[in-house]
Design a protein that fits this description.
nucleotide-binding, four-stranded parallel β-sheet, kinase, 45% helix, 273 residues, Putative phosphoenolpyruvate synthase regulatory protein, elongated, PSRP, alpha/beta, EC 2.7.11.33
């Protein structure tokens, strides 16, 4: 299957178009060239994008794929009437049937967020991000009672990106704490985590993959050696079993999958909005 250029065109950030579009494109075995065009909120801007799409089609000899999230009819018409690409209008696909189902017209508000800076949800996410940054990699044990979840696991098992994803996408206050050889020698989790064990969730990883990741950071070190990685992973998993901490392997899971599993097990209320 030939690769194509894919345009994500939005009157907002384009995140919705790109996220939804990528989930669809992932069903097909090709690596496409992605072009995001955000804040297309005028006829003039839409005309420029239409010209870019036409030039791409002529240069590549194949129609680009175009995912649209545009609410202004005049702006949308310019791109939908373009003969040079396959246009997938996501708002119309869903908004019009919902208007018919609800019996009301949508507000056709431009952009993904409305009055975002004033929303409680937005402020919660900012607070959660600040919390996760302050409690990254065991930097601080203060206010752990405020944490929604505390991720534990060996160094480089995926704790930091998962914590930040939970904060940014779900407003979850996620601390993360590395399990180190000193903890394994004591045969117990750090004392600062013991009162909050019910909030803990563990991440493990395949030792071979861990060694590969660590060698990129500190090549040819004991820290990155396969033997040490095997020992640390084995000790961490034994500790989590002993302490009754739920855990999963991050080796073959995306950040999104890991975060959803954590929410399901620790904060299932966050899966209901």
């Amino acid at each position: 299957m030939p690769n194509r250029t894919v345009f994500f065109v939005s009157d907002g950030t384009g995140i919705t178009a790109e996220t939804f579009g990528n989930s669809i494109l992932a069903q097909f075995p090709a690596k496409h060239r992605h072009v995001r065009r955000p804040f297309i909120d005028s006829v003039e801007k839409a005309t420029h994008v239409a010209a870019e799409i036409e030039a791409t089609a002529q240069r590549e000899g194949k129609r680009p794929i175009i995912f649209l999230t545009l609410v202004n009819e005049d702006v949308r018409r310019i791109l939908k009437e373009s003969p040079h690409g396959l246009v997938l209008d996501m708002f119309n696909t869903f908004v019009e049937p919902l208007e018919a189902e609800f019996g009301v017209k949508s507000n056709h508000r431009v952009g993904r967020f409305s009055d975002v800076a004033k929303s409680e949800e937005y402020n919660e996410r900012i607070e959660a991000i600040n919390f996760s940054l302050a409690h990254d990699d065991g930097q601080s044990a203060r206010n752990l009672e405020s944490a929604d979840v505390i991720l534990v696991g060996v160094s480089r098992s995926g704790k930091t990106p998962t914590s930040l994803y939970l904060a940014m996408q779900h407003g979850i206050k996620a601390a993360n704490y590395p399990l180190i050889p000193d903890d394994f020698e004591r045969h117990q989790i750090p004392s600062s985590l013991a009162p909050h064990k019910r909030k803990c969730f563990g991440l493990s990883i395949d030792p071979e993959r861990l060694a590969q990741i660590r060698n990129e950071r500190r090549p040819d070190s004991k820290y990155a050696s396969l033997e040490n990685c095997r020992w640390e992973v084995r000790q961490a998993e034994q500790m989590m079993r002993r302490e009754g901490i739920s855990w999963l392997s991050s080796t073959h899971k995306s950040i999104e999958e890991i975060a959803t599993t954590i929410l399901r097990d620790i904060r299932p209320d966050r899966l209901i909005y």
